[in-house]
Design brief:
The complex is a heterodimer of chains A (95) and B (485). Helix content of chain A is 36%, strand content 4%. Chain A has 95 residues and is mainly α. Chain B is of the alpha/beta class and 485 residues long. Chain B is globular, with a radius of gyration of 21 Å.
């Protein structure tokens, strides 16, 4: 099933990946090839097969409700591209 | 000194034939002298390594050393290292210096090992040739015009070229086993959950697993002893006791039932590689094993299932790279949308973008059931295929890859051809099983790897079979031609 270029534009927007017109043609071809490869799944009978999300049937574990971590905000913010007064800076969202 | 296994190095250190400082200096010198050819390291930590070696020498002198004390190793650049840049071979993380260590790094350091540096890899571990690295392709020490495999290609090349005796790798669909096979070394992908994923940069979280890559199964056992075990900070790490993997290496293989799946010897397997694997299977028979012809149901679904599930998980995991908290940020963003989009456009390479887009598509409204849910159902069928085989056999054996190392650039522009490289390895990750690749012969002068697969948490059995095989053969002792010049 070929992916149309407008579909590429839609998923690129969802993924916040920039795709210009020139790349869209190539990407549409590549993605169609990959999806063509996975197409054989559609022929498999999976009626009554429980989807498997994880290799082990592990369940989340609980721990005592106690503070065990130290606050390392300064360490984490030291590697951020732009911070001020302990806050992460982004372009203005509301005019 | 550089040609010893960890096991021998550890004896040498104890017998004071050399110090950890001398050993570490020898490897640092080799990296400086030879790695220009291979590009297997992204970062070399000379001062830090020499400091750690001096500390190890003090422990050795004080008699408080463990097996790994003073042994130089390297980490794939996907494991966070406190204070040392961890790039995941991406421009996105070219400036990322983690404030903490991955649990694997913490454990191997606590065991006394000395970190030489960080090894090259495919960008975000997405690739089978190590050609998608932001820092350039890695070259195979057996033939510099060929790929080392991927994604742990730098790790495998470093061990093959004797630039490090052992390294860590990660395996999401074959990324430890395939480069181990192509570079003629031994690489173990443990059971999902055996080794903590904390601080291991995520690609596909239900498939990713860290493991050892070294010269021999015995060395992998020594490393896994230090790496394995529950980590309270990784809720998916298994709460099971860790056996001493070195204790059972010598067990005889009499009565071992080795399943040989027809599906792994069909169309697509190159003739010389197939012949090498058949000879290796004969060797296992000589050691007392019984070969059992088996059929691995649904194995043909591994590639399509993997190439839905892995990109789907990657597209969600990689949404964290937004230019806000760490990593690359584009210059002068006009607004928030521009910040995200341009940062990701500049920071990610082509293969990473392709996989994010495929994953986003598979998870998007209208396609979820047809792709993602269908793939999760196929995943269960694949796991059930293994379950029924393990009712008849103790381990499964076959080729790790369809052929030996291929030429640089020969598959780079054809994702689907590249994906076929992992036809024998992907299903193991989907089922969460442990598997090891051991050197098992040569094809056209290039290494061939045999893959052994076991039920969940049976790493000790894999290491035992691999060790006995290595006692009977010398494929793992071969060195790349001209590698030492």
């Amino acid at each position: 099933m070929p992916i149309e270029q407008d579909e590429i534009a839609k998923i690129a927007e969802l993924a916040r990946i920039r795709v210009d017109a020139g790349q869209a043609v190539e990407l549409s071809r590549r993605l169609s090839e990959i999806l063509g490869m996975v197409e054989q799944l559609q022929a498999v009978d999976t009626a009554d097969v429980e989807p498997m999300a994880h290799p082990l049937d592990a369940t989340a574990t609980l721990r005592a409700d106690e503070v065990t971590e130290t606050n390392r905000r300064d360490d984490f913010q030291a590697i951020a591209p732009a911070v001020e007064d302990g806050l992460y800076l982004v372009p203005k969202v509301i005019e | 000194m550089h040609d010893l296994t960890i096991a021998r190095m550890a004896s040498g250190l104890r017998e004071k034939r050399f110090s950890s400082s001398e050993l570490t200096r020898a490897f640092l010198d080799r990296i400086a002298r030879l790695d220009g050819r291979y590009n297997s390291f992204i970062t070399v930590c000379e001062e830090q390594a020499l400091r750690a070696a001096a500390a190890a020498d003090a422990r050795l002198a004080a008699g408080s050393a463990e097996t790994l004390t003073g042994i130089p190793i390297a980490h794939k650049d996907i494991f966070c290292t406190s204070g040392v840049r961890t790039s995941c071979a991406s421009k996105m993380l070219d400036n990322f210096v983690p404030p903490y260590d991955a649990t694997v790094v913490t454990r191997l350091a606590a065991a006394g090992s000395v970190m030489l540096g960080k090894t090259n890899m495919d960008e975000f571990a997405m690739g089978s040739s190590n050609e998608t690295s932001f820092y350039g392709a890695v070259r195979n020490p057996w033939d510099a015009d060929r790929v080392p495999g991927g994604s742990s290609g730098g790790s495998a090349a470093a061990v093959a070229a004797r630039l490090a005796p052992a390294v860590t790798g990660t395996d999401t669909g074959g990324s430890i086993r395939q480069p181990a096979a192509l570079c003629g070394i031994t690489g173990l992908k443990p059971t999902y959950g055996r080794v903590s994923r904390l601080g291991m940069i995520a690609f596909a979280s239900s498939l990713d697993q860290g493991g050892p890559m070294a010269r021999s199964a015995e060395d992998c056992a020594i490393l896994l002893n230090a790496m394995a075990g529950h980590d309270p900070l990784d809720s998916t790490s298994a709460r099971l006791p860790v056996p001493d993997y070195t204790a059972t290496l010598e067990q005889p293989l009499d009565g071992l039932r080795v399943g040989v799946p027809r599906e792994y010897f069909g169309e697509g397997l190159e003739a010389q590689t197939g012949a090498a694997i058949h000879a290796a299977l004969k060797e296992l028979e000589k050691l007392g094993a019984t070969l059992v012809d088996i059929s691995l149901a649904h194995s043909e679904l591994a590639i399509p299932t993997y190439y839905i599930i892995a990109p789907a998980e990657a597209s969600t995991n990689l949404s964290r790279y937004d230019g806000v908290r760490y990593g690359h940020r584009c210059a002068d963003p006009q607004d928030l949308h521009d910040l995200y989009t341009r940062t990701r456009d500049e920071g990610f390479g082509d293969e990473v973008k392709r996989r994010i887009l495929v994953g986003t598509y598979a998870l998007s409204a209208g396609y979820y059931d047809a792709y993602y849910k269908k793939a999760q159902q196929a995943r269960r069928l694949i796991k059930q295929g293994f379950d029924s085989c393990f009712e008849q056999v103790d381990v499964i054996a076959g080729p790790t890859t369809p052929g030996p190392a291929f030429g640089l650039g020969s598959k780079k522009d054809d994702p689907v051809a590249m994906y076929l490289e992992d036809v024998y390895t992907l299903a193991i990750n989907l089922a969460g099983l442990p598997a090891i690749s051991v050197p098992a012969g040569l094809a056209g002068g290039l290494p061939v790897g045999m893959q052994l697969i076991a039920p969940h948490f049976e790493e000790a059995k894999l290491l035992n079979v691999a060790h006995r095989f290595q006692q009977a053969t010398n494929w793992h002792e071969l060195t790349p031609p001209g590698g030492d010049a």
